[in-house]
Amino acid sequence: MKIVKAELLMVDLKPKVKRTDAMQSFESQETPILKLTTESGEVGVGYTYTIGTGGSSIIALLKDHLLPKLIGRDSSMIQEIWQSLLVSTHATSVGAITSLSLAAIDTALWDLKCKRLNQPLYKVAGGAKSKLRLYTTEGGWLHLSTEELVRDALDVKSKGFCGSKIKIGSPNMNRDIERLEAVRKAVGDDYVIMTDCNQALKLSDAKQRASLLEHTVLSWIEEPFLAHDVSSHKQLAESTTIPVAVGESIYSIQHFKEYLENQAASIIQVDVARIGGITPWLKVAHMAECFNTLVCPHFLMELHISLCCAIENSKWLEYIPQLDTITLDKVKIEDGFAYPPQEPGLGIKWDWDMIYKETLVQHIIQ
After folding, report:
1. Residue 349 catalytic?
2. 286 assigned to active site
3. What would the pLDDT profile of 144-170 be if each residue is shown by its tens digit?
4. Which CATH number applies to 3-118+349-365: 3.30.390.10, 2.60.120.620, 1.10.3720.10, 3.30.70.1050?
Protein backbone atom coordinates (compact mmCIF):
# COMPACT_ATOMS: atom_id res chain seq x y z
CA MET A 1 0.00 0.00 0.00
CA LYS A 2 3.04 2.29 0.00
CA ILE A 3 2.94 5.24 -2.37
CA VAL A 4 5.79 5.06 -4.88
CA LYS A 5 4.83 7.68 -7.48
CA ALA A 6 2.86 10.90 -7.80
CA GLU A 7 1.96 12.44 -11.16
CA LEU A 8 0.68 16.00 -11.10
CA LEU A 9 -1.14 17.61 -14.03
CA MET A 10 -3.14 20.78 -14.55
CA VAL A 11 -5.77 21.64 -17.15
CA ASP A 12 -7.72 24.86 -17.58
CA LEU A 13 -11.44 24.28 -18.08
CA LYS A 14 -13.43 27.05 -19.70
CA PRO A 15 -17.04 27.46 -18.48
CA LYS A 16 -19.63 26.63 -21.11
CA VAL A 17 -21.78 29.62 -20.18
CA LYS A 18 -20.96 33.15 -19.07
CA ARG A 19 -20.81 33.23 -15.26
CA THR A 20 -21.13 36.55 -13.45
CA ASP A 21 -22.03 37.49 -9.91
CA ALA A 22 -21.89 40.57 -7.71
CA MET A 23 -18.12 40.25 -7.24
CA GLN A 24 -16.65 38.73 -10.38
CA SER A 25 -16.98 37.12 -13.77
CA PHE A 26 -14.90 34.00 -14.11
CA GLU A 27 -13.70 32.64 -17.41
CA SER A 28 -11.16 30.08 -16.28
CA GLN A 29 -11.15 27.06 -14.00
CA GLU A 30 -7.64 25.82 -13.37
CA THR A 31 -7.93 22.17 -12.35
CA PRO A 32 -4.92 20.33 -10.87
CA ILE A 33 -5.26 16.53 -11.17
CA LEU A 34 -3.18 14.10 -9.11
CA LYS A 35 -2.45 10.41 -9.80
CA LEU A 36 -0.97 8.42 -6.90
CA THR A 37 0.50 4.96 -7.60
CA THR A 38 1.23 2.35 -4.92
CA GLU A 39 3.89 -0.38 -4.95
CA SER A 40 1.25 -2.91 -6.01
CA GLY A 41 0.26 -0.83 -9.03
CA GLU A 42 -2.96 0.64 -7.63
CA VAL A 43 -3.77 4.11 -8.93
CA GLY A 44 -5.87 6.71 -7.13
CA VAL A 45 -6.89 9.97 -8.79
CA GLY A 46 -7.77 13.17 -6.99
CA TYR A 47 -8.30 16.76 -8.03
CA THR A 48 -8.93 20.31 -6.92
CA TYR A 49 -9.69 23.63 -8.61
CA THR A 50 -9.38 27.39 -8.63
CA ILE A 51 -11.51 30.04 -10.31
CA GLY A 52 -9.19 31.89 -12.62
CA THR A 53 -6.15 32.35 -10.40
CA GLY A 54 -3.89 30.44 -8.05
CA GLY A 55 -3.46 27.21 -9.99
CA SER A 56 0.30 27.61 -10.35
CA SER A 57 0.60 28.26 -6.61
CA ILE A 58 -1.20 25.00 -5.83
CA ILE A 59 1.05 23.14 -8.25
CA ALA A 60 4.15 24.62 -6.59
CA LEU A 61 3.04 23.72 -3.06
CA LEU A 62 2.23 20.17 -4.12
CA LYS A 63 5.37 19.64 -6.19
CA ASP A 64 7.89 21.29 -3.89
CA HIS A 65 6.56 20.46 -0.44
CA LEU A 66 3.64 18.04 -0.12
CA LEU A 67 4.06 15.29 -2.70
CA PRO A 68 7.67 14.43 -1.77
CA LYS A 69 6.37 13.71 1.75
CA LEU A 70 3.98 11.08 0.34
CA ILE A 71 6.56 8.79 -1.21
CA GLY A 72 6.91 5.69 0.94
CA ARG A 73 3.82 6.47 3.06
CA ASP A 74 1.07 3.91 3.68
CA SER A 75 -1.81 5.11 1.48
CA SER A 76 -4.41 3.56 3.80
CA MET A 77 -3.46 5.94 6.65
CA ILE A 78 -5.57 8.77 5.27
CA GLN A 79 -6.22 10.67 8.50
CA GLU A 80 -2.58 10.43 9.57
CA ILE A 81 -1.38 11.70 6.20
CA TRP A 82 -3.86 14.57 6.13
CA GLN A 83 -2.99 15.71 9.64
CA SER A 84 0.78 15.45 9.15
CA LEU A 85 0.65 17.41 5.90
CA LEU A 86 -1.48 20.08 7.55
CA VAL A 87 1.07 20.38 10.36
CA SER A 88 3.92 20.52 7.85
CA THR A 89 2.28 23.56 6.22
CA HIS A 90 1.52 25.37 9.49
CA ALA A 91 3.08 28.57 8.16
CA THR A 92 0.48 28.74 5.35
CA SER A 93 -2.51 27.25 7.17
CA VAL A 94 -5.37 27.97 7.38
CA GLY A 95 -5.53 29.28 3.84
CA ALA A 96 -6.99 28.65 0.41
CA ILE A 97 -3.84 27.44 -1.34
CA THR A 98 -2.99 24.94 1.40
CA SER A 99 -6.53 23.57 1.68
CA LEU A 100 -6.95 23.26 -2.08
CA SER A 101 -3.61 21.45 -2.30
CA LEU A 102 -4.50 19.03 0.50
CA ALA A 103 -7.77 18.27 -1.28
CA ALA A 104 -5.98 16.92 -4.36
CA ILE A 105 -4.06 14.47 -2.16
CA ASP A 106 -6.94 13.50 0.10
CA THR A 107 -9.38 12.78 -2.74
CA ALA A 108 -6.77 10.59 -4.44
CA LEU A 109 -6.25 8.63 -1.20
CA TRP A 110 -10.01 8.11 -0.85
CA ASP A 111 -10.15 6.95 -4.47
CA LEU A 112 -7.49 4.36 -3.63
CA LYS A 113 -9.33 3.29 -0.48
CA CYS A 114 -12.67 2.79 -2.22
CA LYS A 115 -11.09 0.92 -5.13
CA ARG A 116 -9.28 -1.33 -2.66
CA LEU A 117 -12.61 -2.09 -0.98
CA ASN A 118 -14.30 -2.46 -4.40
CA GLN A 119 -17.03 -0.04 -3.28
CA PRO A 120 -18.28 3.38 -4.46
CA LEU A 121 -17.40 6.43 -2.38
CA TYR A 122 -20.94 7.12 -1.18
CA LYS A 123 -21.13 3.71 0.49
CA VAL A 124 -17.65 3.74 2.00
CA ALA A 125 -18.19 7.25 3.41
CA GLY A 126 -21.54 6.46 5.01
CA GLY A 127 -24.21 5.21 2.62
CA ALA A 128 -27.14 7.34 3.80
CA LYS A 129 -29.19 7.61 0.57
CA SER A 130 -29.13 6.67 -3.10
CA LYS A 131 -30.20 9.91 -4.83
CA LEU A 132 -30.56 13.64 -4.23
CA ARG A 133 -32.63 16.46 -5.70
CA LEU A 134 -30.94 18.98 -7.97
CA TYR A 135 -31.21 22.73 -8.16
CA THR A 136 -29.47 24.71 -10.87
CA THR A 137 -27.23 27.77 -10.80
CA GLU A 138 -26.37 27.78 -14.51
CA GLY A 139 -29.37 29.92 -15.45
CA GLY A 140 -29.20 32.36 -12.55
CA TRP A 141 -26.19 34.57 -13.28
CA LEU A 142 -26.33 38.28 -12.55
CA HIS A 143 -25.97 39.52 -16.12
CA LEU A 144 -29.06 37.63 -17.32
CA SER A 145 -32.30 39.47 -17.95
CA THR A 146 -35.46 38.79 -15.99
CA GLU A 147 -36.94 37.10 -19.05
CA GLU A 148 -33.91 34.79 -19.33
CA LEU A 149 -34.13 33.89 -15.64
CA VAL A 150 -37.81 33.01 -15.96
CA ARG A 151 -37.28 31.01 -19.14
CA ASP A 152 -34.49 28.96 -17.57
CA ALA A 153 -36.43 28.31 -14.34
CA LEU A 154 -39.47 27.09 -16.28
CA ASP A 155 -37.27 24.89 -18.45
CA VAL A 156 -35.45 23.16 -15.59
CA LYS A 157 -38.67 22.82 -13.60
CA SER A 158 -40.15 20.92 -16.53
CA LYS A 159 -37.16 18.55 -16.31
CA GLY A 160 -37.84 17.84 -12.64
CA PHE A 161 -35.29 20.12 -11.01
CA CYS A 162 -36.45 21.29 -7.59
CA GLY A 163 -35.26 24.88 -7.91
CA SER A 164 -32.91 27.62 -9.10
CA LYS A 165 -30.26 29.76 -7.50
CA ILE A 166 -30.34 33.40 -8.61
CA LYS A 167 -27.49 35.82 -8.11
CA ILE A 168 -28.33 39.07 -6.34
CA GLY A 169 -26.35 42.09 -5.20
CA SER A 170 -27.13 44.50 -8.01
CA PRO A 171 -26.36 48.16 -7.22
CA ASN A 172 -30.06 48.75 -7.80
CA MET A 173 -31.91 46.81 -5.11
CA ASN A 174 -35.17 47.03 -7.02
CA ARG A 175 -33.64 45.04 -9.88
CA ASP A 176 -32.96 42.11 -7.53
CA ILE A 177 -36.50 42.24 -6.18
CA GLU A 178 -38.13 42.51 -9.61
CA ARG A 179 -36.16 39.52 -10.95
CA LEU A 180 -36.99 37.28 -8.00
CA GLU A 181 -40.67 38.24 -7.95
CA ALA A 182 -40.94 37.45 -11.66
CA VAL A 183 -39.39 34.02 -11.23
CA ARG A 184 -41.59 33.20 -8.23
CA LYS A 185 -44.73 34.23 -10.12
CA ALA A 186 -43.75 32.08 -13.09
CA VAL A 187 -42.74 28.88 -11.28
CA GLY A 188 -45.31 28.84 -8.46
CA ASP A 189 -45.00 28.06 -4.78
CA ASP A 190 -43.74 24.47 -5.08
CA TYR A 191 -40.40 25.48 -6.65
CA VAL A 192 -37.45 26.45 -4.47
CA ILE A 193 -35.51 29.65 -5.10
CA MET A 194 -32.10 30.31 -3.58
CA THR A 195 -30.22 33.61 -3.72
CA ASP A 196 -26.47 34.24 -3.69
CA CYS A 197 -24.87 37.59 -2.81
CA ASN A 198 -21.24 36.47 -3.27
CA GLN A 199 -20.10 38.49 -0.22
CA ALA A 200 -21.04 41.82 -1.83
CA LEU A 201 -23.41 43.35 0.76
CA LYS A 202 -23.16 45.45 3.92
CA LEU A 203 -25.26 44.59 6.95
CA SER A 204 -27.84 47.39 6.58
CA ASP A 205 -28.27 46.63 2.88
CA ALA A 206 -28.66 42.90 3.50
CA LYS A 207 -31.26 43.44 6.22
CA GLN A 208 -33.28 45.71 3.96
CA ARG A 209 -33.14 43.35 0.99
CA ALA A 210 -34.02 40.34 3.14
CA SER A 211 -37.02 42.19 4.59
CA LEU A 212 -38.28 43.09 1.12
CA LEU A 213 -37.70 39.55 -0.19
CA GLU A 214 -39.30 37.49 2.57
CA HIS A 215 -42.63 37.34 0.76
CA THR A 216 -41.00 35.53 -2.18
CA VAL A 217 -40.26 32.55 0.13
CA LEU A 218 -36.56 31.98 -0.47
CA SER A 219 -34.79 28.79 0.59
CA TRP A 220 -31.70 30.77 1.56
CA ILE A 221 -29.65 33.93 1.18
CA GLU A 222 -26.07 32.90 0.49
CA GLU A 223 -22.82 34.62 1.46
CA PRO A 224 -24.19 38.12 2.04
CA PHE A 225 -20.89 39.16 3.71
CA LEU A 226 -17.22 38.29 3.71
CA ALA A 227 -16.73 34.78 5.03
CA HIS A 228 -14.72 35.80 8.12
CA ASP A 229 -17.55 38.05 9.32
CA VAL A 230 -19.45 35.70 11.62
CA SER A 231 -21.01 38.58 13.54
CA SER A 232 -22.79 40.14 10.55
CA HIS A 233 -24.10 36.76 9.43
CA LYS A 234 -25.41 36.15 12.93
CA GLN A 235 -27.14 39.54 13.05
CA LEU A 236 -28.77 38.95 9.67
CA ALA A 237 -29.88 35.44 10.69
CA GLU A 238 -31.55 36.91 13.77
CA SER A 239 -33.38 39.59 11.76
CA THR A 240 -34.93 37.54 8.93
CA THR A 241 -36.93 34.39 8.34
CA ILE A 242 -34.80 33.61 5.27
CA PRO A 243 -32.17 30.96 6.13
CA VAL A 244 -28.57 32.19 5.88
CA ALA A 245 -26.14 29.97 3.95
CA VAL A 246 -22.33 30.02 4.14
CA GLY A 247 -19.41 27.76 3.39
CA GLU A 248 -17.90 28.02 -0.06
CA SER A 249 -15.26 30.50 1.14
CA ILE A 250 -14.45 28.74 4.42
CA TYR A 251 -11.24 26.74 4.61
CA SER A 252 -11.17 25.22 8.10
CA ILE A 253 -13.27 22.97 10.30
CA GLN A 254 -12.88 25.43 13.19
CA HIS A 255 -14.42 28.28 11.20
CA PHE A 256 -17.50 26.17 10.49
CA LYS A 257 -17.65 25.35 14.20
CA GLU A 258 -17.72 29.07 14.98
CA TYR A 259 -20.68 29.61 12.63
CA LEU A 260 -22.60 26.68 14.07
CA GLU A 261 -21.97 27.58 17.71
CA ASN A 262 -23.10 31.16 17.07
CA GLN A 263 -26.17 30.11 15.06
CA ALA A 264 -24.92 32.40 12.31
CA ALA A 265 -25.99 30.08 9.48
CA SER A 266 -28.57 27.36 9.01
CA ILE A 267 -27.31 26.04 5.66
CA ILE A 268 -23.71 24.78 5.48
CA GLN A 269 -22.15 24.81 1.99
CA VAL A 270 -18.88 23.07 2.67
CA ASP A 271 -16.80 22.65 -0.52
CA VAL A 272 -14.71 19.46 -0.66
CA ALA A 273 -11.80 21.20 -2.39
CA ARG A 274 -11.77 24.37 -0.31
CA ILE A 275 -12.04 22.54 3.02
CA GLY A 276 -9.08 20.32 2.15
CA GLY A 277 -10.61 17.05 0.96
CA ILE A 278 -13.08 14.34 1.83
CA THR A 279 -11.60 13.74 5.30
CA PRO A 280 -12.41 17.23 6.67
CA TRP A 281 -15.60 17.49 4.56
CA LEU A 282 -17.13 14.56 6.39
CA LYS A 283 -16.14 16.04 9.75
CA VAL A 284 -17.89 19.31 8.92
CA ALA A 285 -20.98 17.47 7.65
CA HIS A 286 -21.30 15.37 10.79
CA MET A 287 -20.66 18.38 13.00
CA ALA A 288 -23.47 20.21 11.18
CA GLU A 289 -25.77 17.24 11.83
CA CYS A 290 -25.08 17.62 15.55
CA PHE A 291 -26.41 21.19 15.24
CA ASN A 292 -29.48 20.00 13.26
CA THR A 293 -28.18 21.92 10.23
CA LEU A 294 -28.43 21.06 6.53
CA VAL A 295 -25.43 20.54 4.26
CA CYS A 296 -25.88 21.77 0.67
CA PRO A 297 -22.35 21.94 -0.78
CA HIS A 298 -20.89 24.43 -3.21
CA PHE A 299 -19.95 23.44 -6.79
CA LEU A 300 -18.08 20.18 -7.65
CA MET A 301 -21.28 18.22 -8.25
CA GLU A 302 -19.36 15.29 -9.74
CA LEU A 303 -17.82 14.60 -6.33
CA HIS A 304 -20.41 16.13 -4.03
CA ILE A 305 -23.18 13.82 -5.24
CA SER A 306 -21.35 10.90 -3.62
CA LEU A 307 -20.60 12.81 -0.43
CA CYS A 308 -24.17 14.09 -0.11
CA CYS A 309 -25.47 10.54 -0.46
CA ALA A 310 -23.05 9.45 2.28
CA ILE A 311 -24.63 11.70 4.93
CA GLU A 312 -28.08 12.07 6.44
CA ASN A 313 -28.36 15.87 6.58
CA SER A 314 -28.04 16.74 2.88
CA LYS A 315 -31.00 18.04 0.89
CA TRP A 316 -30.06 19.60 -2.45
CA LEU A 317 -27.15 19.30 -4.91
CA GLU A 318 -25.96 22.27 -6.96
CA TYR A 319 -26.01 21.67 -10.71
CA ILE A 320 -23.03 23.32 -12.38
CA PRO A 321 -21.32 20.95 -14.83
CA GLN A 322 -17.59 21.12 -14.25
CA LEU A 323 -15.76 18.15 -15.73
CA ASP A 324 -17.70 17.32 -18.93
CA THR A 325 -14.80 18.06 -21.29
CA ILE A 326 -12.30 15.78 -19.49
CA THR A 327 -14.54 12.87 -18.46
CA LEU A 328 -16.10 10.03 -20.43
CA ASP A 329 -19.52 10.23 -18.80
CA LYS A 330 -21.66 12.64 -16.82
CA VAL A 331 -23.46 12.56 -13.50
CA LYS A 332 -26.57 10.41 -13.85
CA ILE A 333 -29.64 12.67 -13.72
CA GLU A 334 -33.24 11.48 -14.01
CA ASP A 335 -36.41 13.46 -13.27
CA GLY A 336 -34.50 16.12 -11.36
CA PHE A 337 -32.56 13.69 -9.18
CA ALA A 338 -28.81 13.07 -9.30
CA TYR A 339 -27.49 9.58 -8.59
CA PRO A 340 -24.07 8.74 -7.16
CA PRO A 341 -21.68 6.63 -9.27
CA GLN A 342 -21.76 2.91 -8.49
CA GLU A 343 -18.20 2.20 -9.66
CA PRO A 344 -15.48 1.61 -7.03
CA GLY A 345 -13.62 4.79 -6.11
CA LEU A 346 -14.75 8.36 -6.72
CA GLY A 347 -16.65 7.09 -9.76
CA ILE A 348 -15.28 9.75 -12.12
CA LYS A 349 -14.31 8.30 -15.50
CA TRP A 350 -11.45 10.50 -16.60
CA ASP A 351 -10.74 11.01 -20.30
CA TRP A 352 -6.97 10.69 -20.09
CA ASP A 353 -6.42 11.31 -23.80
CA MET A 354 -8.15 14.68 -23.47
CA ILE A 355 -6.46 15.48 -20.15
CA TYR A 356 -2.97 14.91 -21.52
CA LYS A 357 -3.86 16.83 -24.67
CA GLU A 358 -5.01 19.83 -22.61
CA THR A 359 -2.35 19.60 -19.88
CA LEU A 360 -0.59 22.87 -19.13
CA VAL A 361 1.70 21.49 -16.42
CA GLN A 362 3.05 18.02 -15.65
CA HIS A 363 5.36 16.84 -12.86
CA ILE A 364 6.31 13.35 -11.70
CA ILE A 365 7.60 12.71 -8.18
CA GLN A 366 8.91 9.29 -7.16
Report:
1. no
2. no
3. 999 999 999 999 999 999 999 999 999
4. 3.30.390.10
